[in-house]
Specification:
The complex is a heterodimer of chains A (238) and B (326). Chain A has 238 residues and is mainly alpha-helical. Chain A is 64% helix and 5% strand. In chain A, helix 2 runs antiparallel to helix 3, helix 6 packs antiparallel against helix 8 and helix 10 crosses helix 11. In chain B, the strands form four sheets. A four-stranded mixed β-sheet of chain B has the order 9-2-11-10. Chain B has a three-stranded antiparallel β-sheet with strand order 1-5-6, with no helix packed on it. In chain B, strands 3-4 form a two-stranded antiparallel ribbon. Classes of the chains: A mainly alpha (238), B alpha+beta (326).
Chain lengths: 238, 326
């Protein structure tokens, strides 16, 4: 027996199991997709993003100015928005450091993206087997990462209280325009992210309890599932 | 007399002594920041203007002192760095500032000491008001005065970005924007602005915009007769004209007066940000939200089948067997 899968398992076994990227035998079979660290990190980022979205929209369009009441008025909204941005920036990039390698694009992503019709129709049997992330998730990941950089840089330029003198007024005008465009873009990506998690039933538990069902992993990320199985990352170990 | 007029015609005369109601009210607003539906005022106040004749200015700073006095501000004591402009810039406590420029006229090789009283120009098309996100923090009255309403100000500094003249300043103390009010609180009760009242040479005069333009014509004719061929009125059309105007002896190059903009207008970047971006952005986000909700309600969810759960189970059993064998 010298299949590649066995070679791999021989190297890793006995795998350190019980944490992230392990299969729980069950029944029913469950897969640990995210450990508690990443989940806490994710939710700090998520809450920050939602608060930024509300406070930012309040200053974006007069019809939404009433949202400042949620923060205790316009003055509070004005000073708290950039600080939440700082929290989000650090929170997101701690997450980024842990996830970027798995989000590097590969050949399967090209195939997946070219069959986007099948993705939307839910014909996943026609799609290539995928690792932990599909091209859509990778798009959200890199989209968020690049827009957060744009938003923090332009946000600091527009942060009157501390950085009003840092750049010239014409530069600040451009920063504010870019900041609003990037904000619209990140809100669209945020909607895509939330909706994809809702539409793909069984996804949200990955970020609440940290686990997904075996069937979910099998259907959407079979290569990831097979890899864990192949390396014997099965809990409890024999 | 004063009772029948809606605005003072001069800053020189003594104020009316009888009690007066303020005549700059909410009903006299023609623009209000971040407010789309503002009822049109029932009356049109006579447009007023302040005219600053730089050729008559002696640089005494009485206007600055009067401004500080009337507005009860406390600018920090400045530091002499070798020129007369003091403080060195407009601040949240200094709404007007004499800017001194030493300029050598290339035609005559004479040194000309240019003194320009800087401050809010009260644009007919105010960039600050356009940029402001807080409803009612910036208002424009039908007599042309652009005023900041500090209770509504959130301190974001968007007005600073919107202004083509670099005028508003955000207070570090209360985080609200400040600038010249054209003494709206004086004008409302029949008095001219404090700076114009204090000016000893009447380089600053105040009245209806029409009168001020007429007065400027006389001054310009006088300057031209004395060799200033390019003397003229600075009332820049790019911002719809202003309610603070200058008589400049070199109106062909306003930039020599401490960078007075040659053709000021609301920046195209600000127009895009506050125009297309605001409306298109909201529409795109709204459509996307509506689309996802509709798809969520009427579309088919992507569900994991029972069969797939079983396949996963089998795969685990199979893998365990292989691991044991290995």
């Amino acid at each position: 027996m010298s299949t590649p899968a066995n070679t791999a398992s021989a190297k890793v076994t006995p795998a350190k199991v019980g944490g992230e990227d392990t299969i729980r035998r069950g029944p029913p079979v469950e897969v640990v997709r995210y450990g508690p660290g990443k989940r806490i990190n994710h939710w700090i980022t998520a809450i920050s993003l939602i608060l930024l979205l509300i406070s930012g929209l309040a200053m974006f369009h007069p019809s939404l100015f009433f949202l400042t009441e949620l923060f205790g008025g316009g003055q509070t909204t004005r000073w708290i928005h950039p600080w939440i941005g700082v929290v989000l920036f650090f929170s997101f990039f701690i997450l980024f450091a842990q996830l970027w390698k798995l989000n590097l694009p590969n050949r399967d992503d090209v195939q997946w993206a070219s069959q986007i019709g099948d993705v939307v129709a839910g014909n996943e049997e026609k799609l290539p087997e995928l690792g932990k992330y599909n091209a859509g998730q990778k798009f959200i990941f890199w989209g968020m990462a690049s827009l957060i950089i744009v938003l923090i840089v332009t946000g600091i330029m527009a942060w009157e209280q501390y950085f009003g003198q840092l750049t010239s007024i014409p530069t600040q005008r451009i920063a504010l325009l870019v900041h609003s465009l990037a904000a619209v873009a990140i809100i669209l990506i945020f909607m895509l992210h939330v909706y994809a998690a809702i539409w793909t039933r069984g996804t949200i538990s990955a970020m609440t309890r940290g686990t997904v069902t075996g069937g979910w992993a099998w259907r959407h990320h079979r290569k990831w599932f097979k890899d864990m199985a192949g390396r014997g990352r099965i809990d409890p170990a024999e | 007399m004063a009772n029948t007029m809606d605005s003072p015609r001069t800053a020189v005369s003594n104020p009316p002594v009888q009690p007066m109601e303020t005549n700059l009210t909410q009903r006299d607003l023609i623009r209000r920041s971040a407010t789309s539906e503002l009822p049109q005022p029932e009356r049109q106040l006579t447009p007023v203007a302040k005219l600053i004749d730089v050729s008559k200015c002696i640089g005494c700073k009485a206007c600055q002192s009067a401004c500080v006095e009337w507005n009860d501000t406390n600018p920090v004591i400045g530091e002499n760095v070798g020129y007369y402009t003091n403080p060195h810039d407009l601040t949240a406590d200094m709404f007007t500032l004499m800017r001194f420029t030493e300029w050598v006229n290339p035609e005559t090789d004479n040194l000309e000491w240019l003194i320009r009283k800087d401050g809010c120009m009260h644009c007919a098309d105010p960039g600050c008001l356009k940029a402001c996100p807080a409803p009612g923090a910036i208002v424009q009255y039908s007599n042309g005065i652009v005023d900041f309403v500090h209770d509504n100000c959130i301190g974001c500094g968007y007005c600073v970005k919107g202004c083509p003249f670099n005028i508003p300043r955000i207070s570090k103390a209360d985080h609200r924007a400040y600038k010249c009010t054209l003494c709206s609180d004086r004008v409302a009760v029949g008095q001219g602005p404090a700076c114009a009242k204090a000016c000893p040479t009447q380089a600053i005069v105040f009245g209806t915009k029409e009168d001020m333009k007429k007065h400027a014509e006389g001054r310009i004719a006088d300057l031209k007769s004395r060799g200033y061929a390019n003397a003229g009125l600075y009332d820049p059309p790019g911002v719809g004209g202003t309610h603070v105007m200058y008589v400049l002896h070199h109106n062909d190059k306003p930039q020599i007066y401490a960078d007075l903009p040659v053709d000021p207008k609301i920046s195209a970047v600000v127009q895009t940000w506050k125009g297309a971006t605001k409306y298109a952005g909201l529409a795109v986000m709204g459509l996307a939200a509506a689309g996802t909700i509709l798809h969520g309600l009427f579309g088919n969810a992507n569900r994991v089948s029972k069969h797939e759960e079983e396949e996963a189970q089998e795969a685990v059993d199979h893998a365990e067997k292989r691991v044991e064998d290995a």
